[in-house]
Amino acid sequence: MAKILVVDDEEILRMLIRDTLEDMGYEIDEAEDGPSALQKLEEASYDVMLLDYMMPNLTGIEVIDNLPSNVREQLIIIMLTAKSQEADKQRVFEKGVDYFMSKPFSPMKLAELVEEALNAK
């Protein structure tokens, strides 16, 4: 089953996502900020990264900017954000984000998006 990295500074949201996706059989790892995410991406391989846009230390965009190209090539990135204006969406897609989901969101809708993304890979 796919391995997913959940990167968000909100612990409750990470727990909700973890519970939902683990129930579906996915292996979940978590990072509370950008630097932690980059470290985990150096240490392990993931199929999907669920990435918050606005975090302390490094934003989601800065995390993407710091991804090694070999990691980026094999990683599906789903941006999770409260920033849902068209200009924000355009910016994240220009940075190489594969999918975009606005907060707040239904955990089941997120699970469906993860399944869709993995099936399209």
TrEMBL record:
UniProt keyword terms in alphabetical order: Phosphoprotein
Domain of life: Bacteria
Keyword check for Ribonucleoprotein: no
Name recorded for this polypeptide: Response regulator
Response regulatory domain location: 3-118
Residue list for modification 4-aspartylphosphate: D52
UniProt cross-references to SUPFAM superfamilies, sorted A to Z: CheY-like
InterPro entries: Bact_response_regulator, CheY-like_superfamily, Sig_transdc_resp-reg_receiver
Keyword Phosphoprotein set for record: yes
